[in-house]
């Protein structure tokens, strides 16, 4: 059995900055409410006509990650792409990346685990590498939320939170079993599937012909629904559990954490976890203030920024943790 390790990281966010004050011109909201509840100051929203999509942003992040990995694109053996906002209902964006990068006909897998998407994707890649099936895997998390949000007062409790962007990582085989990804931990609780949900264009509840016939402009099933407080309460519990699960599995104490990168769901959730684990400010990385919640892209964007800022060094114990729609949650313990 091998380990896998991250050898290249990249991120891409659209240029268009949307501040909380910009949002207050679209809906009944304000900077104070958004900052107090979420910590978010601004987010990036793709500008119409810019050409940015979930797939193209993923490609831009991937190109940087591949270059930094110092490998050729043709050395990539497999692609894993996590998103909840694919360009097309099917096929998923993995194959678009394979085509856009001009990579030979390797497999491309799409992961549908929302805010936990990147953690799930890393776990899949790690295990393919562990077994020796593949050597180099490109893992991407990318989201274009802004085209699918209800930007009226009706949708304000959801739409102020989400931002667009992409992050990517290149994983390779590591022969030293005490380095790289040490373990991954995945969970779900489908009982709460509809507490954070986008019903349409799923076909379980309605038939396409009925949707077309109704053509109802007030049909909210095309906008995300979130039971915010319920999600918040579950998130803080599950984040804590799954971080502890990873530490215990590797015989590590909380003080061994050099860097915790939580999914950027809400700054208040990250602060709660930081306080609970008694971590210093330099042991937790947050950038939700600048980008909002970019779902599957949030961890790879944050991981890339932390690494670019020199906050992750060789030998560090890095913990990634996520919670989101499903409910799904998970953690990754890495010896950098
Ligand atoms: N601006 C101003 N007022 C608002 C806004 C807004 N944008 N949104 C809601 N309000 C109002 C509400 O109408 C309500 O008013 P009322 O008291 O008169 O009825 C009041 O503010 C409080 O609303 P709540 O929804 O109760 O606010 P809450 O404190 O719960 O904060 C939030 C909402 C920020 C969404 C929080 O619940 C949260 O962060 N939840 C967790 C989100 C999360 O972790 N998601 C997981 C990842 S996402 C994924 O997987 C796709």
TrEMBL record:
Domain-related comment: The last Arg residue of the ACP-binding site is essential for the weak association between ACP/AcpP and FabH.
Region (ACP-binding): 264-268
SUPFAM superfamilies: Thiolase-like
Protein known as: Beta-ketoacyl-[acyl-carrier-protein] synthase III
Subunit structure: Homodimer.
Keyword Transferase found: yes
EC numbers, comma separated: 2.3.1.180
Role this protein plays: Catalyzes the condensation reaction of fatty acid synthesis by the addition to an acyl acceptor of two carbons from malonyl-ACP. Catalyzes the first condensation reaction which initiates fatty acid synthesis and may therefore play a role in governing the total rate of fatty acid production. Possesses both acetoacetyl-ACP synthase and acetyl transacylase activities. Its substrate specificity determines the biosynthesis of branched-chain and/or straight-chain of fatty acids.
Encoding gene per record: fabH
Origin species: Siansivirga zeaxanthinifaciens CC-SAMT-1
One function term, GO molecular function aspect: beta-ketoacyl-acyl-carrier-protein synthase III activity
Active site: 115, 263, 293
Pathway(s) it belongs to: Lipid metabolism; fatty acid biosynthesis
Record-annotated Beta-ketoacyl-[acyl-carrier-protein] synthase III N-terminal domain positions: 109-190
Matches recorded under Gene3D superfamilies: 3.40.47.10
UniProt keyword Acyltransferase present: yes
GO cellular component, one term: cytoplasm
Domain Beta-ketoacyl-[acyl-carrier-protein] synthase III C-terminal: 249-336
Group of enzyme by EC: transferase
Keywords per UniProt: Acyltransferase, Cytoplasm, Fatty acid biosynthesis, Fatty acid metabolism, Lipid biosynthesis, Lipid metabolism, Multifunctional enzyme, Transferase
PANTHER family: 3-OXOACYL-[ACYL-CARRIER-PROTEIN] SYNTHASE 3, BETA-KETOACYL-[ACYL-CARRIER-PROTEIN] SYNTHASE III
Catalytic activity: malonyl-[ACP] + acetyl-CoA + H(+) = 3-oxobutanoyl-[ACP] + CO2 + CoA
Gene Ontology BP, a term: fatty acid biosynthetic process
Subcellular location field: Cytoplasm
């Amino acid at each position: 059995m091998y380990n896998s390790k991250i050898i290249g990281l990249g991120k891409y966010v659209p240029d268009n900055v949307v501040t909380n004050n910009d949002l207050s011109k679209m809906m009944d909201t304000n900077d104070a409410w958004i900052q107090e509840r979420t910590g978010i100051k601004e987010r990036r929203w793709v500008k119409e006509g810019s050409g940015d999509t979930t797939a193209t942003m993923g490609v831009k992040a991937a190109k940087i990650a591949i270059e930094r990995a110092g490998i050729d694109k043709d050395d990539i053996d497999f692609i894993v792409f996590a998103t909840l906002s694919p360009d097309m209902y099917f096929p998923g964006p993995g194959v678009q990346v394979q085509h856009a990068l001009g990579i030979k006909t390797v497999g491309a897998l799409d992961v549908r685990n929302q805010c936990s998407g990147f953690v799930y994707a890393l776990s899949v890649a790690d295990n393919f590498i562990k077994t020796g099936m593949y050597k180099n895997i490109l893992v991407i998390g990318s989201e274009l939320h802004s085209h699918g949000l209800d930007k009226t007062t009706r949708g304000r409790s959801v739409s102020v939170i989400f931002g667009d962007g992409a992050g990517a990582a290149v994983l390779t085989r590591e022969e030293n079993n005490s380095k790289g990804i040490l373990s991954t931990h995945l969970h779900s609780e489908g009982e709460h599937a509809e507490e954070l949900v986008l019903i349409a264009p799923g076909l379980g509840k309605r038939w396409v012909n009925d949707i077309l016939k109704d053509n109802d402009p007030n049909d909210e099933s095309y906008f995300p629904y979130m039971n915010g407080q319920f999600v918040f309460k579950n998130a803080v519990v599950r984040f804590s559990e799954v971080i502890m699960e990873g530490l215990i599995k590797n015989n590590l104490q909380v003080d061994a954490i050099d860097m915790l990168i939580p999914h950027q769901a809400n700054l208040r959730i990250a602060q709660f976890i930081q306080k609970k684990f008694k971590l210093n400010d330099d042991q937790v990385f947050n950038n939700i203030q600048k980008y909002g919640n970019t779902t599957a892209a949030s961890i790879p964007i944050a991981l890339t920024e932390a690494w670019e800022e020199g906050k992750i060094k060789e030998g560090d114990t890095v913990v990634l943790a996520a919670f989101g729609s499903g409910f799904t949650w998970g953690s990754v313990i890495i010896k950098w």
